[in-house]
Amino acid sequence: MPPSSPTVASWELALRLRQRRDQLGIEVQTITATLGFSRNYWSAVENERKILSEEKLKSVLDAFEFDEEEKRELLELREAAKLRGWWARYSALFIEDTLRLYGLEHGAQAIRTYESLLIPGLLQTEAYARALMTSEITTIRQVEVDQRVEVRMRRQERITGEDPLHLTAIVSQAALMQETGGPQVLRDQLIHLAQVIEQHPDVVDLRVIPFTATGCGAFGASTFHLIDFASTRLPTLAWQETVTAAGIIDDEGQVRDLSLTYAEALGRTLSTQESLDLIKRRIREIT
Asked: Which domains are present in the chain?
């Protein structure tokens, strides 16, 4: 099972309360009148901006007619949601959506990721990640670069640590060619990539879309991740980022479209072994 994540617990609690209210057809004004909440207060509860006290949550659970087993589950989710994840220490460095991504990632069972020109963050070396953050046009201060690299390395514990998530990563062959940070940085990155694939075959499945692929819906697409969870109550979420924007996508239709695009892209890739062989050939070329 994935480790507990306050972000995932808070999301599941709010989601299940909202779903139950919709199922029962309870209007917000009924809640405010019956339980003494303001409309803004309840909106904050359903949107994960506020965690109810134990006493108030019990009142809601009674009003929503949850059975005893679900009451216990939701009260446990409340306790988990109150904890502080390691990523919360970096709240001054990242926007709220990025911190939420790290929290969701920490509690995920599997992630499917697509990158066109870069090695995915969960598989990057420190030098490669640092090179991405220190281009000539970047305005990030050195101390912030150090912290951002630290966070990226910490996130990788979900692959190398206990109860790892399963990562399926699709990259274009261009990602193996682009000399991010220079030839030596790229070579070391590819060596690391090959080692991770070989050392964690049940955890990491990296596939390369070769230059010979004649077409794919993901061509020209921005970076995106599909995040899956162990609980059957939780839907798949997506993360998408461009040069100027990034954020979580929870719209069912958009997530479905990204999932279909990902499935098509996966069908255009080399096999895992063929991808590994291509990476090793590229290492020899750089040498």
From this structure: 6-81 (1.10.260.40), 86-286 (3.30.870)
